[in-house]
Amino acid sequence: MASKKELKNWNGVELTETLFDVMESSAELEGKFSAKQVVEHLQTKGKNYTEKQVIASLARLNTTCGLLVKHEPVKVTLYELANKEEEN
Questions:
Q1: What share of the chain is helix, strand, coil (3-state, %, to 5)?
Q2: How far apart are CA 39 and CA 55, in angstroms?
């Protein structure tokens, strides 16, 4: 029989231990942060999560729980003239 996961409460949302640790670490970091920064912050607290685990947890916190907002890098489209004459 599978054991029941212990859930922790974060602002009214029940989270697993991993999600709670990632959310707690995210809250301690100021401003925008990357998954790599969260991994490093967790390691300073003695918790060993891989970057893959943290990325999955951040994605769940964003989509399922609605506790995070994802900021994708701004993509710039560059153009140049199609009939550009070469200088001689």
A1: 40, 5, 55
A2: 9
Q: Can you list the positions of beta strands (E) in 1-88? A: 8-10, 13-15
What digits encode the pLDDT tens for the residues 62-78?
888 888 888 877 777 76
Please work out, in degrees rounded to the nearest 5, the angle formed at the alpha carbon of residue 7 by the alpha carbons of 32 and 41. 30
CA angle 13, 19, 24 (to 5 degrees): 85
Q: What is the pLDDT of residues 23-67, one digit of tens each?
A: 999 889 888 888 999 999 999 999 999 999 999 999 998 888 888
- Residue 64 identity (one-letter amino acid): T
| Contact between residue 86 and residue 44 where contact means Cβ atoms under 8 Å apart | no
